[in-house]
Amino acid sequence: MDFQQVFGKPPETQASAPGRVNLLGEHTDYNDGFVLPTAIPQSTTVELGLSSDGHHHFYSENLDEQVSILDINHSPSGFASYIFGCIEVLQKAGYIIPSLSVYVTSSVPMGSGLSSSAALEVATLRALRQLLNLPIDDVEIAQFAQQAEIHYAGVQCGIMDQMASSLADTEHILFLDTRTLERRVMPLPENAEILVIDSGVPRTLATSGYNQRRAECEEAARSLGVKALRDITDVKVTEKLPEPLRRRARHVVTEDNRVLEVLQGVTSERFGELMNASHASLRDDYEVSLPALDTLVEILQKTEGVFGARLTGAGFGGACVALVKSGQSKDIATHVLEQYKQAGYTGKILVPSLELSDAA
Ligand code: ADP
Ligand code: MG
Fold it and tell me: Whose CA, among 39, 61, 122, 156, lies 20 to 30 Å from 164?
C-alpha cells in the first residue's frame, strides 16, 4: 500500500527523521545533565496531503492500521496519539492546521530504545512545516515533539530523543546540555562507527526502576542542597551521602564528567574507554544493568576492533551500543552474537541496519 492507494490521490509533501542511540550520558537528562546521542541510519518518513472530508486520517504502513479522528476533542490512543499530538501542539501555539491525510512508513525498530517515537514526531512536524511554511526552527520542532509525546502519548520524556532526531545525523554526535539546551554538533570519533545490538531481554522492570532512580537522585540533590545533581562537579562531594544515594549520585556526577571530557576532543580509543567506564558505573553504582547486558558488553569489550561498549537507554534490558573500527561492525556483530548465543542468549543486530544495506 502507498499513499495513493490508501487516500486516492498523491501526497502534497513528505519529510523524514532518524531514530537515535545515546553514546554517553545515561540517566543524566533528568538530573539536568549532559547527553551525547547520534542519529542512526534508520528513519521514519511521513507523507502529507489535505483530507477532503474534514477529518484527519492517519495510516501506518508498519502497523497496517488506519485511524480516523472524527472528534478532535477526543485524543486517540496508540500510534495516532503521536501524530495527533504534533497537530494539536501546533494549533495551541496559534498555527492553523487543516484536516490531513497522513501516511507513515519507517525502518526504525519500534519499542527497541532507538526512539521510533521521536522519529515519528519529528518527521510529522517537518512535513507540517513544509506543507504550511511554518516559521519554526529545528529546536522548536524538537520542543513541539516533546510536548506532543508528554501531553498526547502520555510519556514523561526528556528532550534528548527529539533533539537528537531533529539535530543529529549519522556522521555527527550531538552534545546537549539538558538544562540550558546549549548544544554542539561534533563529528563521530575518527575511524569509528556505531554498532547497536539488542540483548533480547525485554525491559520489564524499566518503569519502576526508572522512577525509583529518579526519586533517589532528587533526594540526593536535596541532601546536598543543589537544584539538580548536575550542579555537583567534584565527585568527592557525594561521599557524605548515605548509601545507596552515594552510589547513585556518583554515577550521575562521573557520567556528566565523562560527557564533558568528550567535549574537549578525544580519540576513538579514549571515547571507548569512557563508554566502558560508563557501563561499569551503570552496573555497579546505578544498578540498572542485568546479567545479559553485562555478558553482551563483556563480549563486545573483548572483541578485536571494539573501542568500547555499554548498555544504552534506561537499562533493565534493551540494547547495548559499541564504538567500533570503521567498516568492521558487521563482522564484529556476527562474532559477538555467536559468543552471546554460547552464553545462552539470543541477541539481534539493530545498527547498522541489515535491511538498509541489503537494499543499497
Ligand atoms: P521507541 O521510541 O524506543 O521506539 P516508544 O515506546 O517510545 O519506543 O515508541 C514506540 C511507539 O511509537 C509505537 O508503539 C507506536 O505507537 C509509535 N510509532 C513509532 N513509529 C511508528 C510507525 N512507523 N508507525 C506507527 N507507530 C509508530
Ligand atoms: Mg520513544
Answer: 61
